[in-house]
Every structure is written in C-alpha cells, then in structure tokens.
Amino acid sequence: MKHLTTFSYTFLIVSALCFSCNDASQQGESAATDTVAVAPATSQAEEKMPEDKSKRPSPPAKVEAKIADVTITIDYSQPATKGRTIFGETIPFGEVWRTGANEATIITFDKDVLIEGTKLVAGSYSLFSIPNEKEWIIIFSTKANQWGAFEYKQAEDALRIKVKPIQEKEVTERFTITVLEGGIVNLQWDKTKVLFKIQKA
C-alpha cells in the first residue's frame, strides 16, 4: 500500500509539471503570434499616409472662375522669388516652363472656349509656356498629368498662342494665376505679368 501511495503522489507531481510547461509554451506561441500580426499593420498604415502638399516649398493653389456659363479651373503650384531674378535667369528664356512648380499646371474647361480667338475644345490641358523678353508662347498640351515639363512633346500640343509680357514696378513674391473680369487670365511673378483672354466658343 505504501508503494502504491508513493507512486500515485509521484505521478500527480509529474503530471502537474507537464501541464504547466505545456500551458506556458502555448502562451509563448500566442504572444509571438500577436507580435507578428500587429507589426505589418503598423508598417502598412505608415506607407499609405498621403503627402501633405501644403508643406512643399512651392505650395498648391487653385483658381475657379465662370466666363458666361463656362467653368474654368486652374490647379498649379506657387514658387517664390526669394530675392532671385526669375525670367531670363532662374527661368531661362526660350525654354519650355511648367508655368508653376512641381506637377505641370492643369487648366480645365467644361465647355468649348476661344483662347485669344482660337477654339479649344472642352477638357483638361497642361499649361506650359516659353518665356522670352519680348514675347511669350502659351501652350495647351493634351497630356494633362505629368511632372514638370520633362516629358513635354510639341506633338501633343492642342494650341499655341503668342502674347506680350508686361513689366511691373512691384515684385510679386509668389507665382500667382488669377482670372480677371472679362475672362482675362493673368500670370504674374517677380516683375512680369502675362495676360491672355478666354471666351465661350
């Protein structure tokens, strides 16, 4: 009887130890699994955070205007002068310019229009320009979404017009686009402004 009792007591102790080890092992596996599951979720959330474009050195700007019953929208970025001479130096004469900064400026018409008397069908266009001392070329490109003018191709032009730049006495610190009364679009930066007229077709 003594031998049986000792055996039973030993068996109980061994069983309890095994159960305890097994339980600890399962808890360890569960903790490890939780750690692996949480880490990727945090990483993916960080990757999907959108850029805050308002914090760029050349922040975004938007113009919306009505000419008759035509809605015009212009999305562009505003580089600053920062004490520089812009046209002829920072922006070289005779070269295609994105007419702003960052992404190419986009101009959109919801109906057909006349640009300085020439028809342009409704749609979205990249607004490029070629500044020169006595004459600017304003370009409406059919390729509406691109970065800067790096992929610009003249073959994709929908329309080109020529306008005269006007020299001002005061500096406009940030490149600014406005739509004035009568459908006049005003591009203004440093001491230069350029105007062209939009009408309903």
Give a structural overview:
The protein has 201 residues and is of the alpha+beta class. The chain folds into two domains: 1-49; 53-200, no CATH class. It contains one helix and ten strands. A six-stranded antiparallel sheet has the order 1-2-3-6-7-8, with no helix packed on it. Strand 6 and strand 7 (136-141) form a beta hairpin. The N and C termini lie far apart (113 Å).
Name a few traits of the molecule.
disordered N terminus; 10 strands; 201 residues; alpha+beta; four-stranded antiparallel β-sheet; 23% helix; 1 helix; 2 domains; single chain; six-stranded antiparallel β-sheet
Q: Can you give me a brief rundown of this structure?
A:
With 201 residues, this protein is of the alpha+beta class. The chain has one helix spanning 2-47; strands spanning 60-67, 70-77, 106-109, 113-115, 118-120, 123-130, 136-141, 157-163, 165-180, 184-200.
Uncertain stretches of 5 or more adjacent residues: 1-46
Portion of residues in beta strands equals 35-45%
* Helix percent band: 10-25%
* Backbone CA Rg: 33 Å
Distance between the termini: 113 Å
Q: Which geometry do the CA atoms define?
A: globular
Please tell me the overall pLDDT.
81
Biggest sheet features: 6 strands, antiparallel
Strand order of the largest sheet: 1-2-3-6-7-8
Count of spatially separate domains: 2
Strand elements, count: 10
The arrangement of helices and strands along the chain is HEEEEEEEEEE
User: Helix- and strand-based class?
Assistant: alpha+beta
Helix count equals 1
